[in-house]
Amino acid sequence: MARRCLDAFKGRTVCHVGEWGGMTGDATFEKQLTESFQLVKVVPLPNWTNTCYALTVWQRRGSGTADPGAPPAVVCCSGCGGPVPLDGGVRSRLCHRLAYCSQTCVDSHADDRDAAMAAQLLPSVLHRRQHFTPLLAGSL
Ligand SMILES: [Zn+2]
After folding, report:
1. How many angstroms separate the Cα of 82 from the Cα of each of 8, 73, 103?
2. Confidence band of 139 (pLDDT split at 50, 70, 90)
3. How far is the CA of 29 from the centre of ligand 1 (A)?
4. 81 Cα–ligand 1 center, Å
5. CA 132 – ligand 1 centroid, Å
6. Span 32-81, pLDDT tens digits
7. pLDDT digit string, tens, across residues 89-128
8. Would you give the distance in Å from CA 14 to the centre of its chain?
9. Is the pTM of this model over 0.90?
């Protein structure tokens, strides 16, 4: 449904409320949105411990309304705080607010991740690499 809405939309600004790379839309929609629109603002929203919903505002590329500066990150790394690349970042399948830009950050954030997972009553054995998924699986 999100893709069909975006296909039909002819305006300049898209406001997306949801979980990027998670439970809202799909990878094809997110790829289409990033190709046709530039992210201009990210507004964090209240979340449960296992979700990462946000309001993102996008301007159509070539419309003259997008800021020529560097766009904000859609998802920030839980390890270093930097942007998580959409084509190389990973997110925890069990705790969506945990996302990482690199394996180095996955490894260095293990203790904090243990605490976040324990807060959700999830055992640390679930922190292994296979419990991470590419942020945009198969879309880029
Ligand atoms: Zn990082």
Report:
1. 34, 8, 14
2. very low
3. 25
4. 6
5. 14
6. 998 899 999 989 899 887 788 899 999 999 876 656 666 678 888 999 99
7. 888 888 888 899 998 998 899 888 888 888 888 776 655 6
8. 16
9. no
Contacts 24+ apart (CB under 8 A), 22-30: 22/51, 22/52, 22/91, 22/96, 23/51, 23/96, 24/53, 26/2, 27/136, 27/137, 27/138, 27/139, 28/3, 28/139, 29/2, 29/3, 30/86, 30/136, 30/139
Going from the Cα of 84 to the center of ligand 1, the distance in angstroms, rounded, reads 7
C-alpha 33 – ligand 1 centre gap (Å) = 24
CA dihedral in degrees (71, 138, 21, 68; nearest 10)?
10
Distance 83 CA to ligand 1 centre (A): 7
In the reported structure, the alpha carbon of residue 119 is separated from the centroid of ligand 1 by a whole-number distance in angstroms of: 22
Q: Tell me which amino acid residue 2 is.
A: A
Residue with tokens 């990973």: 90
Phi/psi of residue 131, nearest 5 degrees: -95, 15
Q: Is 65 helix (H, G, I), strand (E, B) or coil?
A: coil
58 closest CA partner among 135, 133, 5? 5
Distance 99 CA to ligand 1 centre (A): 8
